[in-house]
Amino acid sequence: MPDDDDYKMTPEALALLIGLKPSRERPRQYIVENVPDEERPEAIAQINDIFRNTLIGGRAFITQGIQALPEEDQAKIVDAVRTFRDFRKGDDPHGERDFGWFMFGTEKIYWKIDYYEDDQMEAGAEDPLVPKTYRVLTIMTGEEY
Fold it and tell me: Where are the alpha helices (DSSP H) in 1-145?
């Protein structure tokens, strides 16, 4: 049976997937500084969309409030986050698709993506477009937000 590492995408592959080009001088480094400022939010949003759907490049946490729900409801909520497309300008002012909320029955569910330097999650990432950025998705109830 394959383990989780068999399904992980390298930062280089993820960078290529969203169209970042490798540096000629350093082929394993990607030139994020060459992404024009006006294209950065969409590039970050694309990585966030891929991450939400696959968890490539990070991990997800559900809070105690979500854990207290029946497993079937938990699965439906996680699936709703994976397929979420209802981004509102007030909730996503930078266009990075790193935050959202929806109603699940009578409960408001929030989710957010935080950016870290690496999987130790000790320091925030300086630039969420750098391919090595480690993403953390947190899903919570409205009371926990």
Answer: 11-17, 40-54, 64-67, 71-82
Distance of CA 84 to the CA centre of its chain: 12
Other beta carbons within 10 angstroms of residue 4's beta carbon come to 7
CA distance 44 to 21: 15
- The span from the CA of 15 to the CA of 112, in Å, is 22
136/83 Cα distance (integer angstroms): 17
Q: Which residues pair with 114 in a beta bridge?
A: 136
In terms of Cβ atoms closer than 10 Å to its own Cβ (0-12, 13-18, 19+), residue 138 is: middle
pLDDT of 72 higher than 70 = yes
Gap between the Cα atoms of 125 and 15, Å rounded: 16
Give every strand in the sheet of 134-141, ordered side by side: 58-62, 134-141, 107-116, 99-104
pTM attached to this predicted model: 0.79
Tens-digit pLDDT profile for residues 18-49? 555 555 554 444 556 667 888 889 989 988 99
Strands 107-116 and 134-141: antiparallel
